[in-house]
């Protein structure tokens, strides 16, 4: 009786959640997915039934990564709160049948709607948009078979009032652009393949009846991102042709992201000349061929720029300072800068300079001083070697950028100059860089506690000091300057990679351990670090970086053996918030021990493993999928036979598809000739965010789309 009375007394003295104020409860409920609020939580008691339908919770509904939602839940959700929804984001809900879109018609007051990645036909789009008279922002996909002539007059009336349009094209088409006569923001993603599934070459010419002229007179933001392929280039030129005739007076952001060579034509030259005369820009990104060797930047005028991207351009540091930074004038507004692959951007001139020569620290210092409010900076895919001058190391200068939230650096840029001189440039007996004969280096050991790890670090390390000064960094990428993924887009898998930079040989476990100082780190990418011997720094990251959600590791240590496997498994046991894991490493063994460790990542949703000559254990994979209930994506490109891969893929789909509607499984031999055909069926959300390797820092302007 005494025990019972004590327990009841504790309960009476405890805090009852329902005693909190409505404001506090609403803040707590804002972290719960809307489907759970409406379909589950509000059924628990009268107070929550009222709060869950508060306008602050139903005004904006985000379903874009609610992988548990199915067509029945969407139907019920729209029926219960459809009239209260003003913003609906269903981007990437590829698993929902096209009939699900019909229920969006209940949301009569919709102002913003994102259906990117959803299956929508011309007729369904017409029916839906005919009822959404208040719509001002729309995102859709244009797939083969789209026919603008099927759009009703009511649908076109709605489109005429749309101010913001994001359109992903999988077929040559203007889509709904000609109907949107009031556009102020236009985002175009070109994902058109050069060949059809039957192997026929596609043409970039638009189909008959789709040559209506787009209306750009009110345009403020124009953005186009092209996937590799000549058809994408042909189609985007048709979109640009109208712009070249008359440049919108209010245009303040002009961005074109194009891989490879995208030649300048007479029409594009006229467009750029017109922009130089008539507009003042706040954001700029152009294909490298449009900037290289031209005096364009000298003539363009800028207002309060917030984003610049000169990715893969041969722009020299001298031109960067003179023509863009303008001696440090009016660049406090710049928050995002992408200099990825801009190999000469930190040198005074590029004419007689080798890519591996030391940088000019005065140029970087001018950049840091002028752009002191930078939040996103990408310096990857280049050799940025610091000289021996004291206090002028790249890491020391970057440490002044206290507002940085995301940073991408080449591996060779973070090495201490003194260490790289003292340490032999190559250690062939420890870290062979080819797929040649394996060398036995003994049993790998690493410190088991942070105290030992701290004792191993070099106190004077410039990279350690940089990590210490950027405590609020959320995204970090350290990528080898010559690294290339084994899975490029629309091409066969790469079989051989270029050797790492000589200075990268000085970057090893202690530098990785320095990253553990980033308490708020959410996304980490490490690629081509040849001197990783044990991976001990990974354990420190797992222990200290408790907010880590995305982890991508590629080609760490010796190429003939996964030397960091033991440390990786220890790390994964501490990554409770990890949602996305991508591993790219030759000879990776995805066995029972690995998947047992990975099962500790209770929040894991997506897994991608790319491994030349890699192996897997089917039973271990099935057990992992059964234990990790949140996993909805499993991509493995290994060295196993096609039969083994197909059998495992079918087993996973058969066992878990019913419980996980968003489940996407691709298990396929990495070097198989049909790999590109398999890749084209992967949902764009997964392909773009995790399966394909790329640097994502400052890839796009911040807050480009809601």
From TrEMBL:
Gene Ontology cellular component list: SCF ubiquitin ligase complex
Gene3D superfamilies with a match to the protein in the record: 1.20.1280.50, Ribonuclease Inhibitor
Matches recorded under SMART domains: FBOX
Annotated F-box domain residues: 14-61
Entries under Pfam families matching the protein: F-box-like, LRR_FBXL18
Biological process terms in GO annotation: SCF-dependent proteasomal ubiquitin-dependent protein catabolic process
SUPFAM superfamilies: F-box domain (SSF81383), RNI-like (SSF52047)
Tree of life domain: Eukaryota
Matches recorded under InterPro entries: F-box-like_dom_sf, F-box_dom, FBXL18_F-box, FBXL18_LRR, LRR_dom_sf
Record protein name field: FXL18 protein
Organism: Rhadina sibilatrix
Gene that specifies this protein: Fbxl18
């Amino acid at each position: 009786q005494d025990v019972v009375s004590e327990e009841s007394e504790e309960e009476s003295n405890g805090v009852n959640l329902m005693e909190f104020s409505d404001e506090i409860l609403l803040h707590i409920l804002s972290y719960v997915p809307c489907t759970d609020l409406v379909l589950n939580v509000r059924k628990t008691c009268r107070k929550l039934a009222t709060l869950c339908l508060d306008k602050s919770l139903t005004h904006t509904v985000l379903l874009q990564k609610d992988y548990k939602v199915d067509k029945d839940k969407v139907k019920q959700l729209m029926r219960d709160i459809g009239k209260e929804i003003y913003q609906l984001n269903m981007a990437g809900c590829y698993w929902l049948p096209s009939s699900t879109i019909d229920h969006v018609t209940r949301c009569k007051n919709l102002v913003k709607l994102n259906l990117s990645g959803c299956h929508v036909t011309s007729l369904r789009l017409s029916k839906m948009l005919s009822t959404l008279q208040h719509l001002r922002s729309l995102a859709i996909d244009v797939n083969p078979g789209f026919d603008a002539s099927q759009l009703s007059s009511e649908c076109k009336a709605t489109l005429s009032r749309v101010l913001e349009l994001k359109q992903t094209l999988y077929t040559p088409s203007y889509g709904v652009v000609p109907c949107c006569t009031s556009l102020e923001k236009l985002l175009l993603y070109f994902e058109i393949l050069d060949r059809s599934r039957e192997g026929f070459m596609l043409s970039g010419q638009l189909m008959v009846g789709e040559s209506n002229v787009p209306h750009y007179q009110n345009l403020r933001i124009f953005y186009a991102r092209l996937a590799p392929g000549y058809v994408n280039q042909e189609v985007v030129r048709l979109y640009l042709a109208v712009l070249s005739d008359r440049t919108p007076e209010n245009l303040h952001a002009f961005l074109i992201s194009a891989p490879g060579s995208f030649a300048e034509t007479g029409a594009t030259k006229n467009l750029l000349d017109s922009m130089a005369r008539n507009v003042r820009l706040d954001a700029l990104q152009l294909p490298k061929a449009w900037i290289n060797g031209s005096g364009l930047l000298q003539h363009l005028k800028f207002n309060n720029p917030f984003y610049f991207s000169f990715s893969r351009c041969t722009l020299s540091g001298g031109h960067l300072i003179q023509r863009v930074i303008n001696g440090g004038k009016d660049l406090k507004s710049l928050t995002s800068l992408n200099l990825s692959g801009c190999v000469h951007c930190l040198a005074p001139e590029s004419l007689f300079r080798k890519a591996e020569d030391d940088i000019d620290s005065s140029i970087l210092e001018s950049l840091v001083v002028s752009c002191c409010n930078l939040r996103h900076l990408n310096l990857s895919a280049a050799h940025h070697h610091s000289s021996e001058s004291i206090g002028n190391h790249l890491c020391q200068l970057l440490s002044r950028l206290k507002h940085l939230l995301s940073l991408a650096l080449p591996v060779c840029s973070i090495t201490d100059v003194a260490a790289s001189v003292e340490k032999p440039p190559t250690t062939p007996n420890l870290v062979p860089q080819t797929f040649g004969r394996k060398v036995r280096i003994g049993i790998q050991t690493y410190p088991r506690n942070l105290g030992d790890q701290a004792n191993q670090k070099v106190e004077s390390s410039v990279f350690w000091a940089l990590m210490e000064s950027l405590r609020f960094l959320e995204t970090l990428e350290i990528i080898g300057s010559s690294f290339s993924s084994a899975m490029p887009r629309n091409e066969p898998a790469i079989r051989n990679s270029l050797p790492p930079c000589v200075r990268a040989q000085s970057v090893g476990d202690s530098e990785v351990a320095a990253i553990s100082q980033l308490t708020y780190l959410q996304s980490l990418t490490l690629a081509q670090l040849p001197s990783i011997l044990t991976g001990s720094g990974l354990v420190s990251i797992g222990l200290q970086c408790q907010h880590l959600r995305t982890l991508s590791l590629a080609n760490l240590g010796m190429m003939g053996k996964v030397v960091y496997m033991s440390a990786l498994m220890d790390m994964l046991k501490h990554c409770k918030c990890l949602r996305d894991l991508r591993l790219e490493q030759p000879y990776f063994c995805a066995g029972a021990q690995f998947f047992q460790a990975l099962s500790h990542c209770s929040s894991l949703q997506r897994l991608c493993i790319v491994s030349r000559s890699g192996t897997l254990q089917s039973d271990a994979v099935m057990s992992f999928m059964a234990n990790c209930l949140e996993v909805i994506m499993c991509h493995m490109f290994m060295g196993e036979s096609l039969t083994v891969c197909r059998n495992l893929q079918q087993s996973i789909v058969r066992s878990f598809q019913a419980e996980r509607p968003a489940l996407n499984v691709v298990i396929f031999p990495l070097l198989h000739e049909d790999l590109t055909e398999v890749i084209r069926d992967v949902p764009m959300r997964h392909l773009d965010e995790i399966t394909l390797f790329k640097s994502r820092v400052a890839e796009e302007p911040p807050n480009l789309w809601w």
